[in-house]
Write a structure and sequence with these properties.
Order of helices and strands: EEEHEEEEEEEEEEHEE
Number of helices: 2
Distance between the termini: 42 Å
Shape: globular
Bound molecules: fe (ii) ion
Largest sheet: 6 strands, antiparallel
Strand content: 35-45%
Radius of gyration: 16 Å
Oligomer: single chain
Structural class: mainly beta
Number of strands: 15
Length: 193
């Protein structure tokens, strides 16, 4: 909490740099390396090799100074680097909101997608600059970079929504997104490949 502005947060403007994927003023920044995505890629041997071979940064999240507490409306910009591990596109860990609340993503640069799963049905939304992806309450969500450039999006979410990452480890996300020729393919999350 100390990295955020002092409460109460005053009315303010926050500048975002669409090309750089930064916010100013900024709050906490999160960096996720390959080792942070343990148990998430289907091909665990390729994942282990990537961790041993430099443990690259897969994505980063820069937050605004608005704190993640109930009734506040924080924002963040996530940038996912391009790449695949064992053929599976680089992605965020994915999470469910413990307090089921909605969220919006706004595509800023690059090409990606928003994978959503409610425990039964799966949805995929193509994301490009100018696309708003809507995540309804109760849908776990993960972002995927399906392009050759960094993919960035702005997220706006209720501060009390929370992040449950273990939900995805237990339940998956319905589908996985694979590179196939010049495009992409979807495979069942727990299918052998
Ligand atoms: Fe979320």
């Amino acid at each position: 909490m100390s990295d955020y502005s002092a409460l109460p947060v005053p009315p303010m403007s926050i500048r975002f740099d669409q090309a750089a994927g930064t916010l100013s003023p900024a709050g906490p920044t999160l960096t996720r390396r390959m080792s942070d995505l343990e148990g998430l890629f289907r091909d665990q041997n390729s994942w282990r090799t990537a961790v041993a071979d430099g443990d690259p940064i897969v994505y980063s999240v820069v937050s605004s100074p608005v704190p993640e507490i109930d009734r506040e409306l924080p924002q963040s910009i996530t940038t996912i680097h391009p790449g695949t591990t064992g053929g599976e596109f680089w992605m965020t860990k994915g999470h469910q909101h413990p307090n089921h609340q909605g969220e919006i993503y706004l595509g800023m640069s690059g090409n990606g997608g928003l994978l959503m799963f409610d425990g039964k049905d799966t949805r995929w939304v193509d994301m490009a600059p100018g696309t708003i992806g809507y995540i309804p309450p109760g849908w776990a969500h993960r972002s995927v970079n399906v392009g050759s450039e960094p993919y960035s999006f702005l997220a706006v979410y209720p501060g009390g929504a929370g992040h449950d990452y273990s939900w995805v480890l237990e339940n998956g996300l319905g589908q996985r997104v694979w590179r196939q020729d010049d495009g992409l393919a979807f495979v069942d999350y727990f299918a052998e490949v």
